[in-house]
Every structure is written in C-alpha cells, then in structure tokens.
Amino acid sequence: AGSPDRTAASRPPLVLPLTLSYPNASRVASSRSRRGLAEGGHPSARMRLHDDLLTNGYYTTRLYIGTPPQEFALIVDSGSTVTYVPCASCEQCGNHQDPRFQPDLSSTYSPVKCNVDCNCNSDKSQCTYERQYAEMSSSSGVLGEDIVSFGTESELKPQRAVFGCENSETGDLFSQHADGIMGLGRGQLSIMDQLVDKGVIGDSFSMCYGGMDIGGGAMVLGAMPAPPDMVYTHSNAVRSPYYNIELKEIHVAGKPLRVDPRIFDGKHGTVLDSGTTYAYLPEQAFVAFKDAVTSKVHPLKKIRGPDPNYKDICFAGAGRERLPVIRGISKG
Fold first, then answer.
1. How far apart are the first and last CA of the chain?
2. 307 is catalytic
3. Which sequence ranges are marked TM in the entry (predicted)?
4. Which H or E run includes 287?
5. How open is the CA angle 11-197-240, to the nearest 5 degrees?
C-alpha cells in the first residue's frame, strides 16, 4: 500500500503481470519510510497468470531494461530493495531464464559514478551493491542507470531507474531459474521509491495472488482506490524497515492456538515478504500449530516432504475438504 501524504491519484498506476517460475527460498533485506493505503484510478490492464505454489516457490514479473529493451524475469520481492539482473561480464552467475544484461548494447545505459553516498569498486569509478539473504545466498555487482519499462499492459511510460548489474551470485540465486530480483521494499534503491520520488506514481503498490486451484495473480505499482468493503490492518514503519503487521492469534478449525499472543510481537512484528516461499512461526507457536493441525488430519498417512534437507510434515491424500480451516487474526 502507499503513504496518504504522498498520494498521486491522477498519475497512471503501473500494472505488471506475475508469471510462473521455479522453487526458491526466503528473501530479506533493507529499508525505508512509511507506505500505506492510497487513493487513485484503476489499473489500465490486467492479464490472467498461472502458477502452482506446490511446485513453484516464487512469483516473477517481466521487466525490460535498456534501449532497445532487454527482457528479464524477476522475482517480486517486498522483503528487499535492490533490483538486479546478471551482467554480461559476470564470472560467477548461474544459467537463468534469459540472456544476461549487456550494457554495451543499450544506448541509454550509464554507470552510477562513485560518490560519497555509495560503496565503490576497486578503481573508484562506479558504485557497487552487495546483498545477503536469510537462506545464505548473496548477490553483488555494480550499479547502473537505464530506461526501465514494464510491458504493454502498463500505462506508465518507461522511466530511468538505478539497478544492479550482477558480477557474482551464490546459493539459490545462482541455481534459480529466474534472472534476478525486483526489490519492492523501502529504501533509496527500491524501484518503488525511485518511481515515487520522481512523482510518476502514487506511493502504493498492490499484489493479488490466485488460489491454489485458480493460480495467477497481478501486481499494481501506483495509487488505486481501496474497495469500500476492504478489511485492512496497519503496518508500522517506525517499528521495522520491513512491511509488517501485528498478528494476534492463529485459529485452526475455529479454535485459537493456546499460546501467549505476545509471542507474535517480536522485534519486527509479523513480516509480509512476497519473496519468501513459506510462512515461519516462533517455535512455541509452530509446535502448537503442528499439534492442532495433526490432530485434525490423523486419519491421513504421513509422508516425507519434497526436500530431504528439511523435516517437513506432509500427508498423502489431503484434499481441501479434509484439511482444517486456518485463519490469522491481526490487529484491526
């Protein structure tokens, strides 16, 4: 969502389709100011999308960088700030969905020159970035600026933006199918904050995912009106650099877990991260949750999870009608 004091209702919202991609783990990174609900026009276009969260661990969108445009499939990640793609000169990058970005083929590319506000490369000529994530993967490279466009469904014209050109990636970032990350968190390098600071969109973004048996989704960058019957909860930007909510209870089959609500009230609250595949709970809450769910599905056969590195609790033959309804109750 977006900050009420920075709303731009008259500016066109930016619509990006989310597309299918392959398994990956959690993403967590850097920070900035408040972002809340905002008013504005409806998106100019939508398109049907497809995914299966049981076999695909993240969502991607298509981003086009340079002149002429070079196309990339990027994980939409509200838990990090930098948008980056593999550079043509990268010596430690995996094989991904699309060809690497070639700065020399873009007539509008320019390096972000070394300055007092950034870390610099070895010859002090260009700004650099480095990010490490919760699942121990990492990305590093140089910062460049170029024309970024968002596809034919967007009303927003192409804009100049700063992004990362990777020289090295490790862990899941190296092995994933997607090309890179689109950082939607709060921070100077966030593509959201860059567009807002330019005054071309309102200070809000929205994501909508289809259900397991529906699939698909859509993302809107820019102000749009909230439905009159929307139920929402507050995110405290002072408390945490991450988008967060105050979770009060978890109900399984209509019954609240028997845990102290303060267990959900840690340093960052409950973080909303579109780049994280799974939900994570404090240990006490997880044990109570596991026991509550297991007690409702005991007739089902336990099976091993898909990843041998983790002790996942899985069941065979668990159709939706045989699983308990799970609800999270947040403040407000």
1. 16
2. no
3. none
4. helix 283-296
5. 110
Which residues, listed in sequence order, are joined to residue 102 by a DSSP beta bridge?
none
Q: Where are the domains of the chain?
A: 4-221, 244-330
Distance CA 285, CA 311 (A): 17
Strands (E), 51-137: 60-65, 70-77, 84-86, 110-111, 119-120, 127-132
- 258's tokens: 């028997």
Q: Residue 114's pLDDT is what?
A: 95
Q: How far apart are CA 225 and CA 171, in angstroms?
A: 40
Mean pLDDT, rounded, for 85-113: 97
Both tokens assigned to 216: 């698909």
77 annotated active-site = yes
Residue 4's nearest CA partner among 33, 38, 42 is 38
Give the closest residue to 313 by CA, choosing from 283, 291, 281: 291
Q: Is the pLDDT of residue 56 over 60?
A: yes
How far is C-alpha 48 from the geometric centre of its chain's CA atoms? 19
The active-site residue out of 51, 77, 172, 193 is 77
Joined together, the tokens standing for residue 318 give: 């668990």
Dihedral class, residue 269 (left if φ above 0, else alpha if ψ from -120 to 50, else beta): left
The active-site residue out of 146, 179, 203, 273 is: 273
> Residue 30: its pLDDT value, please?
39
Q: Whole-angstrom Cα distance, residue 160 to residue 182?
A: 15
Over residues 152-211, the pLDDT tens digits come to 888 888 899 999 999 999 999 999 988 999 999 988 999 989 998 988 888 888 888 776
Taking 70 as the threshold, does the pLDDT of residue 77 lie above it? yes
Peptide bond into 69 cis (omega under 30): no
> Domain 4-221, what fold?
Cathepsin D, subunit A; domain 1 (2.40.70)
Report the alpha-carbon distance of residue 44 to residue 266 in Å, rounded: 39
Cβ neighbours of residue 252 closer than 8 Å, sequence gap 6 or more: 289, 292, 293, 296, 324, 325, 326
